[in-house]
């Protein structure tokens, strides 16, 4: 039996690998089960069957408040955040041809952090906190643009982008720390929670504000596929094959900044997902970018969902920021993966 | 057949000029080889012929049209280039690599037509790499790897093929293997092949035309038999040599002077053993 499904008609022709489709199906099932279980546990136990009944509209309504208001919006946001970060990290890693790339390196996290902390430190009580996501996103966009422009010298090369990004991130982090040090303790702790990354107190409005961005940008990620595949072979080969590499690079950065920027805007500095999700994805489906987009999204989403469930239940009555859990569990798991694949 | 010409071409990096005001016409359907000392600009010249380097002045013409005015994808349908020492990403298979040669013929919706499949298979066949299709590029030997990269440029299905030092770092047997492949591509499929080679003797054996680059321009160009002389070698490479006939092919063969261990002759012939 062939490893591929070939689709050919008058308008289009594609070839799809079969194995990733199976992986995606399995990941969807795992994600769904994790979500049902995640909705069950908490300070009040709701049985998984009740959750399922409720989700499919056949519930008694007794748990409506817990599920609909407290747990589900938070979980859906966590899913969107993780999926966005996973894809953003994937695009960047493939674009700069470096497995250590993540949304942090092109200034998204540091830019958003500076903007968010400045907002918390300077405008708390003056301007409504609800514009914080917008401010963070603008910060992310601005710093990314600045890095891109500084890296430009008759075109942008990945290595220049990475080095300037690292320098810029260091400068921004210094600025963030300075603002925290100089602000009152209450503001400082709020800023810290934001920096760590948290989906605490998410409402359906937050989800509704974030979802359109993600739904718009995710399909665009697939459009990067041809560019990624051809640029992997090196700039000389890519130009020789007729690729407009600078234009492609700009679009890829734009999509990736958009995805990671939205995630950071709504959940703060959730680190590590963008770095880790694509690596775990490659573990399952290899190098095919078309397969890695959905797989990285599912893995990233699953990671944040599960980490948040643990963060809000394991230390009851404390509700930890999800970022702590991601780094605390994710980092050792990542090291373990690297240890097992020592050829990397 | 597609023509490739350079007019008043000036090339360089930042302020340094590497090629100054050069004119060149590449014969269609023949093998042309650029030779010259290290750093003379022959690779730079080849790269600019494939629009990998923008000229400081002058232009490269493809079929009477300036490359500056052509869409890069359209150029890629007529001309393929394999730069020096390409590196495949970890884990990429031969099939995935060769498939990329179809890039200029594909689009967002047309990503795997029957034609694409046919040309990829044909390229693998021409380079005798069909049985390697599922291997990763990294697991191959140097010679196989170079054949696979050439297969990728073949899948591009262009009249013109530019190769930058395709035999560097290969042992002698693999060098011959690659050059024989180029010979076949020219001989049986009539492709125009332009290469940079370091080995003057291989250049003389396979090329219809030699272009010797020196002092930012072309020192001499023509058939190997006419062009390769000890004076030319002395000027272009700064080396004394003796030109003899290749015992197998009759093409000019350059034997350099220099130090080295000489084979011991019988005592009686000792006096005449020291030529030069």
Account of the 3D structure:
The complex is a heterodimer of chains A (about 350) and B (about 280). Chain A is an all-alpha fold. Chain A has one domain (about 20-340): ABC transporter involved in vitamin B12 uptake, BtuC. Chain A is built from 14 helices and two strands. Chain A has helices at about 20-40, 50-55, 65-95, 110-125, 130-150, 160-180, 185-195, 205-225, 225-230, 235-240, 245-265, 275-285, 290-315, 320-340, and strands spanning about 5-10, 15. In chain A, strands 1-2 form a two-stranded antiparallel sheet. In chain A, strand 1 and strand 2 form a beta hairpin. The longest helix of chain A is centred in the N-terminal third of the chain and has 32 residues, at about 65-95. The relative contact order of chain A is 0.16. The mean pLDDT of chain A is about 85. Chain B has one domain: P-loop containing nucleotide triphosphate hydrolases (Rossmann fold), CATH 3.40.50.300. Chain B has helices spanning about 40-50, 70-80, 95-100, 115-125, 140-155, 170-190, 200-205, 225, 230-235, and strands spanning about 5-15, 15-25, 30-35, 55-60, 65, 80, 160-165, 190-195, 210-215, 215-220, 240-245, 250-255. Chain B has a six-stranded mixed sheet, with helices on both faces. Chain B is globular. The chains are: A mainly alpha (about 350), B alpha/beta (about 280). The interface between A and B is medium-sized, with 25 and 39 residues. Chain A: Belongs to the binding-protein-dependent transport system permease family. FecCD subfamily. Chain A: Pfam families: FecCD (PF01032). Chain A: Its main location: membrane.
